[in-house]
Design goal:
heterodimer; A: 353 residues; alpha+beta; 9 strands; globular; B: 141 residues; mainly alpha; two-stranded antiparallel sheet; 48% helix; elongated
């Protein structure tokens, strides 16, 4: 029986939650929105074909693992990411790291996690959790999406870590190798870089499958679903999948938009810039827009009819959200770009701006 | 959303609550535990009915002797054929062959063991399907 003293952090998005909790454990207080923002977690991708599960290919965030890695790089944290081929070596390493007093983040498949509610378990390979101890019943697991720490049986954790398919975790384990030391100046620069990167990728990538253009692409295609699919059930299930990805799968509401608004608010304090309070309020408004989209979709789902007008209406909301995000991230990018680099350094030295 | 407007609707979380971000009366963001959001529940219900339908369809086919019980086990695990092949480490062509009842009946013990391990089933469970198909949602509306 071994167990670290580890504080469970209940959070909205699994990966930013894990990242924030690991950093806090190693003595660098970090909130979930901050981790999400510095790691540039917010994104939008839409590929114009179906996935193997028949769902529309879209994501409100960057690829799994991106937040932890990007944040680690930007803050100069010594971290390690490992992949494994088999469970024996993976578990031996887990034991060894726990013995050293290091909690470990793991990428897992939700379906195999024994403690998850049955109807929440589906094939999704990019769920993150922290292992912080072991006893007779199994691994002690801090799953950031749930309120309390859980116990996971060894067999199910092995299955979850070595599930196959899209975004297969391949036993991915990550941890912080040495207690991080981050100066307030470095933090400020990291926040700045996180904002610039998200601002760029949401407003300026000249490809239709990324950023605000992908939101428009989704809106355009969504509008055609009732005429494209003969069976109304098909178009409804496509719409339902969009709403699930936006709300259900650990996003903190409105496809990470509220989470990002929380980050912008904290960035206002870190960068000592009141403008970010306004950006945050705008972001919240955009999140409300996505929420109203979800509400309308729910009505379509319940009605069970693929009505062309109803689909046009929800597509228009999505398009409007895309336009508002383009405007906001364009503004944020320009605002942050215009800030002289020296000002950040001077601020750190305690001189007036 | 405002702190007191965070949806607290009945959901599929079986009593768990998840974290939602909302603003308090001063406009500051806080984390509020949420029991669920009805729009999300409606969308999830669509997906769960779909799984149920696929499971029922596979179960019917097995009962009619059109496919081997593997089809049912895959449907319960929400494995499309490509994912099932990846999980088992075999080609789709071979899987297609094993989905035929005749071919499945003649499988060697080694193959059966391999399927049992991949599907986390005993051999008795592997070669048959339950008396009633597993349901996540009950009867369709």
């Amino acid at each position: 029986v071994s167990q670290l003293s580890y504080n469970h952090l209940h959070s909205a998005h699994c990966e930013s939650g894990v990242t924030a909790a690991l950093l806090t454990h190693h003595g660098l207080p970090m909130t979930e929105p901050m981790a999400f923002g510095i790691g540039s977690g917010l994104f939008f991708i839409h590929l114009p074909f179906k996935s193997v599960f028949g769902a529309p290919n879209l994501s409100f965030r960057k690829a799994p693992g991106a937040v932890f890695k990007t944040l680690g790089r930007r803050l100069g944290i010594e971290f390690e990411v490992r992949h494994y081929r088999d469970a024996v070596k993976a578990n031996a390493d887990l034991d060894a790291l726990l013995a050293q007093g290091t909690p470990i983040g793991l990428q897992t498949n939700v379906y195999w996690l024994s403690y998850m509610p049955r109807r929440f378990r589906f094939q999704f390979n990019a769920h993150n959790l922290v292992v912080y101890g072991k006893d007779e019943g199994g691994w002690r697991v801090s799953d950031p999406v749930l309120e309390e720490p859980q116990v996971c049986t060894p067999e199910s954790l092995d299955r979850a870590r070595f599930a196959k398919g899209f975004l297969a975790p391949r036993g991915r384990a990550y941890f912080i190798a040495r207690p991080p030391k981050v100066s307030s100046d470095r933090l400020r620069t990291a926040v700045r870089r996180g904002i610039l990167s998200t601002g760029f990728s949401m407003s300026r990538i000249p490809l239709p499958i990324f950023g605000h253009k992908a939101i428009w692409l989704l809106a355009d295609r969504m509008q055609k679903w009732p005429t494209l699919y003969k069976d109304p059930h098909d178009s409804i299930s496509q719409l339902a999948m969009v709403v699930r990805m936006q709300e259900e799968i650990g996003t903190g509401g409105a496809g990470f938009r509220y989470l990002y608004a929380a980050f912008l608010q904290q960035a206002a304090v870190v960068l000592d810039d009141k403008r970010y309070q306004e950006f945050s309020a705008t972001m919240t408004g955009i999140g409300d827009g996505w929420r109203s989209f979800a509400g309308k979709c729910a009505r379509i789902c319940r009605a069970g009819k693929a009505d062309v007008d109803a689909f046009a209406e929800v597509a228009a909301i999505v398009h409007a959200c895309g336009e508002r995000e383009r405007a906001l991230f364009d503004q944020i990018f320009n605002h942050e770009k215009a800030r002289p680099r020296r000002a950040t350094v001077a601020l750190a030295a305690g001189q007036p701006q | 959303v405002k702190q007191d407007e965070v949806p607290q609707d009945d959901s599929f979380l079986d009593g768990h609550r998840k974290a939602a971000y909302a603003v308090d009366e001063k406009g500051n963001y806080v984390v509020v535990p949420s029991k669920g959001y009805e729009a999300e529940v409606a969308a999830t219900a669509v997906a769960l009915y779909e799984v149920d339908r696929a499971v029922q369809h596979a179960w019917d086919q097995v009962k009619r002797g059109e496919v081997s019980p593997l089809a049912y086990h895959f449907a319960v695990r929400q494995w499309p054929l490509s994912l099932a092949a990846a999980e088992l480490g075999i080609s789709r062509l071979r899987l297609w062959w094993h989905l035929k009842p005749g071919a499945f009946a003649g499988l060697s013990p080694a193959w059966k063991k391999r399927y049992c391990e991949a599907l986390a089933l005993t051999e008795a469970q592997l070669v048959t399907v339950p008396d009633a198909p597993e349901k996540l949602m009950g009867q369709a509306p």
